[in-house]
């Protein structure tokens, strides 16, 4: 009702506006809408997408308030108020519309990280969104029919303004849910405290897509004479903390960081640290939901591993706004105010695997492949990174990619995927599909002698049981993600009181193996193929990656290759 539509034009003519002034108002509003289109991406880069939406919709409320008052009163300078108010409101309207569109396109489907039904849910949510927009579009014409007298125009305008305010309140509630707060109250009290809220490690980098202000959502308060309680939530399942497992590595990192007597010369803001370890009964979301929320209040900081605890972590974070949480190998998009998403640079994982596959395949037919799980950004980063790495190591090699659509075991689908790879005569296969990829590699290495590259843990140890499982001699190595380095670094940052929620932190490769979160596992039985010469080349490649001489060419947000990644198989 409060835009330059047919209804408003009729009202303005009744108020004595000339046709020329109405045309000028229409033109100014159009220019303002273009300004909103330009402002939104620039502002989003500075304060983050979610906060840009809040600024935009409240700008609309603020600028339309005097317009509504001018409709009620003849004493205000009506033409000036309506011109300025409506023109400025279009900046907020257009910017907010773009924010909502981007959230619907980029964030709705990625929150479940691997649930195939989430893509259908995104369609349902988008359908409801546009249907409700059409309902309210229709409502304005119904209101005009009911209050058709220009003297009653203030009634539908008031109802319309009330809907805008309600929308701003609802969006602000969503903002609080995502970030843990509406304003940075601590900045009002002490602007200087914000300068310390930054994690700096040798192998960590921040996601540039998250605005600088978005990162400072929550940090634990220093207490140099106090104790901090930390909880590490291990993964469920039968392996427990066996050697080489992610649990064992993560637990070692936590023990390295959380010491009872913390050194006073390393910048720690606490005197003592108490570590609690929690293990669910099984590796399922339900098992975590029965564990994490119940224990959250007993700890100052809690860290979990992987996708399965993500919903339980968010539930606990929402219920404990003054506590800090972290989750490894999962990214909350949009970010949550008191949760730190800790990620490996998955494009580097795929890239290193591709470099090795290309080097090995040069003399073995020149065809390699990567098995991806669910087609989502985290997996696409590995798949397309793999293709980029192959091209660097072997320009004439052909890299194939295949998405299985799942991560868990499926014997029938495993046989199908293995047969597809046989039909394409590949010689090296990289596992980017977790358990499903491991089962496929076991099929290929046993029956066909195809060489495999594992991921995550040292799969020769964990899944080929120290060489006791058939096909182990064809495991070249694994691209190991070292939870010891990651967990130690994250917890030490908490102890230094400079880790903040609402952020995503990335850990990647480093020439120093002790400081590298992504590394090549040792060569066990495949030394005749993965030769010392190739091993030397791989160390050189990794050094060039760290120096920036080699780039993966993969876009983080989408996971797509900026040039071309692996050729996809059906």
TrEMBL record:
Mind telling me which residue stretches traverse the membrane in this protein? 52-72, 78-100, 153-176
Tell where it localizes: Membrane
Keywords of the record, alphabetical order, are:
Ion transport, Membrane, Signal, Transmembrane, Transmembrane helix, Transport
Q: Which InterPro entries match?
A: Ferroportin-1, PnrA-like
Q: Which GO terms describe its molecular function?
A: iron ion transmembrane transporter activity
Superkingdom, taxonomy of origin: Eukaryota
Stated family: Belongs to the ferroportin (FP) (TC 2.A.100) family. SLC40A subfamily.
Q: What exactly does this protein do?
A: May be involved in iron transport and iron homeostasis.
The molecule here is called Solute carrier family 40 member
Please report the organism this UniProt entry assigns to the protein: Dissophora globulifera
């Amino acid at each position: 009702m409060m835009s330059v539509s047919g209804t408003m034009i009729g009202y303005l003519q009744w108020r004595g506006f000339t046709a020329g002034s109405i045309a000028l108002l229409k033109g100014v509003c159009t220019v303002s809408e273009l300004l909103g289109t330009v402002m939104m991406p620039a502002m989003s880069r500075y304060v983050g997408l979610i906060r840009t939406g809040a600024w935009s919709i409240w700008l609309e409320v603020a600028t339309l308030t005097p317009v509504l008052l001018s409709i009620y009163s003849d004493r205000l300078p009506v033409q000036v108020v309506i011109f300025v108010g409506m023109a400025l409101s279009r900046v907020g309207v257009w910017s907010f519309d773009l924010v909502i569109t981007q959230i619907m396109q980029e964030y709705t489907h990625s929150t479940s990280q691997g649930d195939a039904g989430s893509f259908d849910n995104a369609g349902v949510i988008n359908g409801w969104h546009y249907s409700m927009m059409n309902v309210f579009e229709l409502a304005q014409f119904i209101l005009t029919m009911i209050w058709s007298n220009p003297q009653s125009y203030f009634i539908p305008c008031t109802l319309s303004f009330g809907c805008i305010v309600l929308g701003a309140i609802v969006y602000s509630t969503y903002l609080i849910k995502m970030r843990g707060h509406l304003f940075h109250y601590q900045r009002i009290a002490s602007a200087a405290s914000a300068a310390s809220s930054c994690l700096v490690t040798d192998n960590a980098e921040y996601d540039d897509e998250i605005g600088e202000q978005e990162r400072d959502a929550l940090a634990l308060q220093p207490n140099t004479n106090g104790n901090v309680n930390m909880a590490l939530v291990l993964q469920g399942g039968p392996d427990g903390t066996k050697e080489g497992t992610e649990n064992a590595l993560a637990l070692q990192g936590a023990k390295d960081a959380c010491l009872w007597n913390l050194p006073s010369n390393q910048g720690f803001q606490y005197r003592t640290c108490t570590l609690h370890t929690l293990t669910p009964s099984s590796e399922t979301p339900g098992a975590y939901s029965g564990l994490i929320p119940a224990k959250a209040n007993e700890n100052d900081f809690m860290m979990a591993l992987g996708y399965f605890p993500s919903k339980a972590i968010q539930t606990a974070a929402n219920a404990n706004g003054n506590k800090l949480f972290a989750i490894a190998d999962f990214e909350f998009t949009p970010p949550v105010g008191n949760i730190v998403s800790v990620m490996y640079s998955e494009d580097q994982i795929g890239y290193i695997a591709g470099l090795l596959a290309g080097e090995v395949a040069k003399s073995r037919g020149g065809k390699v492949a990567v098995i991806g799980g669910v087609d989502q950004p985290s997996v696409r980063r590995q798949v397309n990174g793999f293709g980029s790495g192959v091209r660097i190591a072997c320009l004439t090699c052909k890299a194939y990619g295949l998405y299985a659509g799942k991560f868990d075991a499926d014997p029938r689908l495993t046989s199908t995927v293995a047969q597809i790879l046989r039909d394409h005569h590949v010689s090296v296969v990289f596992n980017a599909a977790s358990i499903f990829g491991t089962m496929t590699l076991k099929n290929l290495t046993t029956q066909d002698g195809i060489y495999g590259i594992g991921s995550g843990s040292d799969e020769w140890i964990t899944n080929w049981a120290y060489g006791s499982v058939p096909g182990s001699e064809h495991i070249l190595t694994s691209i190991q993600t070292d939870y010891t380095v990651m967990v130690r670094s994250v917890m030490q940052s908490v102890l230094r009181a400079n880790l903040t929620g609402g952020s995503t932190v990335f850990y990647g490769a480093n020439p120093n193996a002790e400081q590298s979160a992504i590394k090549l596992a040792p060569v066990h039985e495949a030394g005749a193929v993965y030769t010392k010469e190739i091993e030397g080349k791989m160390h050189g490649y990794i050094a060039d990656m760290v120096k920036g001489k080699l780039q993966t060419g993969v876009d983080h947000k989408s996971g797509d290759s900026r040039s071309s990644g692996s050729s996809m198989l059906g």
